[in-house]
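Much of the work behind modern protein science is quiet bookkeeping, done one molecule at a time. The protein below has been through that process, and both of its lines are reproduced in full.
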Amino acid sequence: MTQYMGIDWLAVCITFPAIYLLSRKSRKGFLLMVAGNLCWALIGYLAESYAMTAANLCFLIMNLHAYASWAHGDPRPLRTAPANRPSLHDNRQSPV
C-alpha cells in the first residue's frame, strides 16, 4: 500500500487541477502539470517502468516549451482549414 509513498496520490491531486487550469486557459496549469510530470516520472522509476518515466519527462519538456511559448506570445498562429473547404460539422450537402 505504501509502495509509492503517496507520490501517486500527490500526482493525481496535482494533475487534475492542472488540467482544469489549462482548460480555463490559465498559464499556471503548465507549471502544475510540470510538477505532476515529475511525480509521474518518479512513480515510473520506482515501478521500474522506464517507458512511463521517459514519457513523462517528454511531457515535462513539452509543458515547459508551451509555458515559455505562451510567455513570449508565440507569433505562429494555429493552423486552420481554408475557408472554401467544408468543415466536418457543415450540414449543407454539396451538389452532386
